[in-house]
Amino acid sequence: MRPLEILLTICANLIAFLVVAVPRLRAARWSGYVILITFVLAGVQVPLEGPRWQMVPAYVLTALFALVWVVQRFTSLGKGVKQERMWRIVAGLVSVLAIIGMALSVALPILLPVYSFPRPSGPYGIGTVTYHWTDTSRREVFSSDKNRHRELMVQVWYPARKDVSSAPAPYMSDADTVTTAIARLQRFPDFFLDHLKYVPTHAAVTVPVADNSPHYPVLIFLEGLTGFRQMNTFQVEELVSHGYIVVGLDQPGVAASVVFPDGHQVAGLPKKQMQPLYNQSLDPAKDVPQWEGQTFKDGIISYFAQDVSFTLDQLAALNRRDPQGLLTGKLDLEHAGIFGVSFGGMVASQACEADSRLTACLMMDVAMPANVVKNGLRQPGMWITRPASTMLLERQKTGGWQGQEIEQTQTTMRAVYNQLTGDGYFVQVPGMFHIDCTDLDLLSPLSPAVGLGGPIGSQRAHEIINAYSLAFFDKHLKGKSEVLLEGSSVHYSEVIFEKRRP
């Protein structure tokens, strides 16, 4: 809970309840000031911290207590037996409603909090800037406009000077549109995730790039299906704080919704509609799927992987001249890697297979495309996933993946790992569920209890992911010696770690 939320829900409303419930307190001269302060506090909290639906019981209580206090102080209900009995009934009902309301007003903001990210451990501050790029060589297949070219919204996070103070960047851009799209795709009420627009980050918009180094290695991040480009902020901020420039892509067709500067949007497709298109990339069928009149013989994954090659071209141009005057000469594209979660990991593997400019590939908890299994990867690769037993546990608790999907994920990851021509690392985290690979397990502290997060807990899952991600890229993009990649670790004893040399 945020500071003013705590003051309103736990302190002010509790005191106001006691004032209206206890006759001696109600009769005190200062009781009116308590009610007034509670009302003012609610009025201040809304514009300063922002309203959210989880706070509705607190707002209603504030108004209810003020109304009851006014009635008690200034309205005569008469002294007859019937009037007194009626007042006792009303007072009892108000007390019951107040107690229920107090419980809800405290519980809802705690169970669905405006969460914060742990402070990154690296020496750099974090800056961020967003670009809109158009690939005029390709048509946008997820638009009904046949003449529209492929467009991307691209967010860059970069090492920044820590001595520059600036307001934190919001977690999500176009949050109202994106959270509504996510909620609809996941079959939640439209308003369910609207509080994510208040989540703070450790990044600041367009602050100066740190001058500790002439340039920094580049990492491209790919989101999961029906996700958004900021969905792994816990991981992005940690990497940037250690001297990486991270480039997050919002890919139309993958993201829940992509909003462009001219106002047009490309909404994501439900998994049921996307599944035939990406299944064709995993296990090609004779009946080739089509979408919007276009045939996808090899599935949709290669189409999304082309976004990565286009991004590398754009980054090279940006490195020559950044129109925003920030990143010119700061991108070390000779040391470029990629990481993706879920569907993004699948696309990342395809991008690595197709584009040798990527020199390190991290894939998280997803099956590998058929042609990647066939051709293998030339780059060093790391997989962060969990054993099949944990996947089955997730399925038992939340419905999760079907048995065939579990088998396909495990066998294809292992197949590509076993034939790597560069260094390989297979990192399994027992007790980690799929959602724990993203920020979304932070939505509620009850996530593990209701099966939306694994028994390992989000904090530990994120610590492990960050440690192994950083070690992998430090070794293969910065040339550092990393003890963590040599074998089992005392600090992460639950991890099942494997490595292979070419």
TrEMBL record:
Q: Which residues cross the membrane?
A: 6-23, 30-48, 54-74, 86-112
User: What InterPro entries does the annotation carry?
Assistant: AB_hydrolase_fold
The question of whether Transmembrane is a record keyword is answered with yes
Q: What is the superkingdom listed in this entry's lineage?
A: Bacteria
Which GO terms of the molecular function aspect are on file?
A: 1-alkyl-2-acetylglycerophosphocholine esterase activity
GO terms classed as biological process: lipid catabolic process
Swiss-Prot/TrEMBL keywords: Hydrolase, Lipid degradation, Lipid metabolism, Membrane, Transmembrane, Transmembrane helix
Q: Which Gene3D superfamilies match?
A: alpha/beta hydrolase (3.40.50.1820)
- What Pfam family does this protein match (any one)? PAF-AH_p_II
PANTHER family registered for this protein in UniProt: PLATELET-ACTIVATING FACTOR ACETYLHYDROLASE
Q: What is this protein called?
A: Carboxylic ester hydrolase
